[in-house]
Amino acid sequence: MNHNLDEMALPQSSRNQELEVISQRIFEPLFDVERFVLDGKVIDNGIDYHCELKYKGNVTGFGFNFQLKSKEKNEPLKNGTYSKSFELLNIQYLINNTHPAFYGFYIVESDTFYYEYLNDFIANLKTNNTNWEKQQNHTLNFYKKLDKQAVDKIYDVVLARGMLFRKINSSLVDRLAHSHLSSNIIIDFNDNVTSEIEIIKIVEKYGFELINQSNWNKVIELHSKTLHSSTFSAKYNMIVGLAYYYKSDYLTSLKYLKNAIREKANLVIELQNHLIFIISSIKLLLLMITKEEYDSTISNLEPDKHITFHVKIDSAIEIAKEKLFQTENLRVEEFEDCINSIISNIEASLQVKLRAKSELLIYEGNIAIQQYSKHICRINAFEVSLFVNYEYRKKINDELQLLFTNIEQEYFGLFEEIKTTNNYFAFYYLLMHKQKYDFLKYSTFEILKLAKESIIIDYSDNYEKILINLDSCFDYFNKIGHIENQIFAKSIKYEILHYLKRYELAKTLIAELEDTVVLIDIKSLKEQLEFIKNGGTNHQMLQELLDDKINNPKEKIEQLRNELIKLDEIEKNINVNKVDHYQVTLFPIGNFIVPKNNLEKFYKIFEIKKGKLKEQFKYMFELGVVPVVNTYVYPIRQEGPLEGNLEYKGFESFLNMYNARKKFFENKFYRLNNK
């Protein structure tokens, strides 16, 4: 037997096998034993290695597959990549394994390992060819180097994919355990896995908290992942209905709230009341019920610690709107008593009290602006007809300064209180109304100023700050999806832009408002928008009032004054028998006679009805004391000059004086002329 190896007939070694061994020896050291378990496959059906992850020293069961290819040398393509062809059957086999899979490509000449993630390879195939599965071979262009950073990335990808499949399996088990529910499994773009059952549990557990945090968009997002089953609980339906309500999607809201009301017995009394209140509010808004039907329903709610207080606040606001300008001091005691009782009530929640305090402060701000208007009109009426009263100016200025300073301090204090609660909705709601208050205040200062020796102040910077703050308010309400407050913020901004004569910007904004209002299709909002479009902004109404009550009446006053002069001319030639008459001083006109046999006519002219006041005048007449009547005031409730010229409040006061003088003349109560 010949023992010379050079002369023996032996099987030849395969260079492909050698390359395979080389690639394996290069491949394995790249994966550290602390994180990977590598299992090389003897039988190669398209997988060279099945690998498993370790996590903090523990094997996880999370696996991945690697298919290795190698080549002696390979010239790169023009784009710098290295191409390798793979059969369709190999690609399909790796997909069927369900584990994450990777292709490796080792080039001996450059001693470089490249890799590609199967999912990225398939995604690229689908992008370039929708019928890729009908093609038997596909070329993969390698460019990612398999180094330490790549191994770290592979570990992260496989770990994430392992957790994903674990969650899917867990959700499948849950679905079997709750076979009475129609539950689907949701996987989002971030590979988060959720079952419908889990979503329902999350919404029922945290939904009201999300609503209270103004995060109703999150509730709607969660709900959108369900099958919208009719088997939802009353609590779930109520939460979803509230989310759509605050989103201003009233019809969708009503759908879920009606489902909830069918099983309201499963809800506590506070939630039952809240449910009935919101349903009734939507129906009233959509004109599905009358105001009387709404009031009847709400009045029958059982007392609780939440919605009952909100109903009282809403009712108080309506009362304030109705009665605010019906009293001399502009205050509405019924509103104030109601709001203050809620603020001091230990049963009311913190959120309810914050709302009550906000509404009270908004109310006080409106009164302060009206007080300013009232005082300025009074000063102007006096000074235009007479003289500049610096002492009275200072008195009023001090009062107004104190009033507006107190309002600012109250706003600051309430903002600080709200901040401690992290109630962003309450904060931006108050901030929005503060901007409206500031705008009304500054614009009123500019429109309604002193007629004589007025001081001009530039409020341009103030308006710019208000616009910036309004944008912040809008951004917040846009973020949380509260459309009505978005509309309110934009409507204030429109008024400011219109007042500043930025008409093009105002026109664009009103178009945006119209689109929004048409979208939600609420009649009351459409009417409000039409109103401000057609001269209903506060500054336009104030200017119109100013023209009607102050500017335009000037000509009328001059006409009436000329008539009074003519009456004086006529009376100069009339001889008066002082024996048969009493004497009275009509402030600010002068002294006149009152026939002794015609006292009742005197009382009628000034509408003096009280017996005591009649007796007082009669007693003074009979004693020879000359009583005084301030003709700026009508009807007369008190003898005397009162506050003299300070009672003059504009054209109305002049008209009172004119009417008194004319009636005296017509009834032959003539002026006493000192000759």
Describe the structure concisely for a colleague.
This protein has 24 helices and 13 strands. The N and C termini lie far apart (172 Å). 58% of the residues lie in helices and 11% in strands.
Provide structural commentary.
The protein has 675 residues and is α+β, with helices and mostly antiparallel strands. Helix content is 58%, strand content 11%. It has 24 helices and 13 strands. It has helices at residues 15-27, 88-96, 118-128, 148-177, 196-212, 216-223, 234-246, 250-261, 269-285, 291-299, 307-323, 333-343, 350-385, 390-419, 424-447, 460-480, 483-499, 503-520, 523-533, 538-551, 553-571, 599-605, 611-623, 651-666, and strands at residues 36-40, 49-55, 58-71, 82-87, 101-107, 112-117, 137-142, 144-145, 185-187, 193-195, 581-587, 590-595, 628-630. The strands form four sheets. Strands 1-2-3-5-6-8 form a six-stranded mixed beta sheet. The chain has a three-stranded mixed beta sheet with strand order 12-11-13, covered by helices on one side. Helix 15 (424-447) runs antiparallel to helix 16 (460-480). The longest helix has 36 residues, at 350-385. The radius of gyration is 43 Å and the shape is elongated. The mean pLDDT is 85.
Q: Strand tally, please?
A: 13
Given as residue ranges, the uncertain stretches (5+ residues, pLDDT < 50) are none
**Share of β-strand residues:** 5-15%
Strand numbers in spatial order across the main sheet: 1-2-3-5-6-8
Radius of gyration: 43 Å
Provide the structure class. Answer: alpha+beta
Question: Helix share of residues?
Answer: 55-70%
Distance between the termini: 172 Å
Average predicted confidence as pLDDT: 85
Specify the overall morphology: elongated
Number of DSSP helices? 24
Largest sheet: 6 strands, mixed
Domain DUF4365: 39-154
InterPro entries: DUF4365
Organism: Flavobacterium jejuense
Protein name: DUF4365 domain-containing protein
